[in-house]
Amino acid sequence: MSIESVLSKDLTSVRRSGALWGVAVCLALVAAMMAYVNVGRGAPPLREAQNAYGLLVGLIGVLVPIVAIIASYMSITGERASGGIKFLLAFPNTRRDVFVGKLLSRLGVVSAIVLFMFVAATAMTVARYGVFPFGVAVGVLAVTLLYAWAFVALSVACSSAAATRSQAIAATVGSYFVLVILNLTFRFSQVVQLVHDVILGFDPDPHLYAAFDYVSPYIAYQKAANLVYPTAMERNVFRFREEARESMPAYLSDEVSLVVFAAWLVIPLALGYLRFQRSDLQ
């Protein structure tokens, strides 16, 4: 019952946030616009509609983590900064109740925003192409929710471990920069390759380099999308050459993306919860 009380209170507070509503509307408009301007003219309507969701995945990979961070980074830190944490723990609620209630609340809010965005994109896709690629649409929605939840878990964990607003911002923004932005411009594998080949003098091993990239939920999201795409839409996420792609080991398969998501859902939350349990909230 205590978890339910924290969840209910937090959902009521989040519903009043104009910033989150604004983010949800903007994201839905951008998703609808991306579906409308989808390129690849001349293909059958079903293929065009499927391509629209492929284009949406590229957009989501960058924007959805921002939504998750905005919705979650102050979930617990905000209560500590305002002194509300003492009120929450006086009901009585345990720290576990507060942690789980806040987590469930932010997971629900971010899931609703993602669903709202997909409804807008789907409505535009159906209106333009006259078909609904059910398998691709539902599959992309499912892996997108996993991706969003991974960043909600990370943000709530950072919020539970941070004592101040500035610490929470630094931790969440820093994680977004390392896990998403760097993978758009400069991947972990490049550093590993430099150390492995140049400094240590070992023979090149592109599969080893890619394994370090796979740690990122952004890369895992791109790989997970391959699980729901038609064969013709599948992407070479690791940018392997033909010979390296044909001999790709099992630990780089698309299915491993689900394991990566599970790790990002469990490990940060466990560490954040332990830190929260040991924190001095005075």
Automatic annotation (TrEMBL):
Task: Write down the Pfam families for this protein, in alphabetical order.
Answer: ABC2_membrane_2
An example of a GO molecular function for this protein is: ABC-type transporter activity
Instruction: List cellular component terms (GO).
Output: plasma membrane
Instruction: Write out the transmembrane intervals.
Output: 20-39, 51-76, 103-126, 132-156, 168-186, 256-276
Kindly state which keywords UniProt assigns to this record, in alphabetical order.
Membrane, Transmembrane, Transmembrane helix
Q: Which domain of life is it from?
A: Archaea
User: Record's PANTHER family?
Assistant: ABC TRANSPORTER PERMEASE (PTHR43471), ABC TRANSPORTER PERMEASE PROTEIN NOSY-RELATED (PTHR43471:SF1)
Q: What is the official name of this protein in its record?
A: ABC-2 type transport system permease protein
Q: What organism is the protein native to?
A: Halorientalis regularis
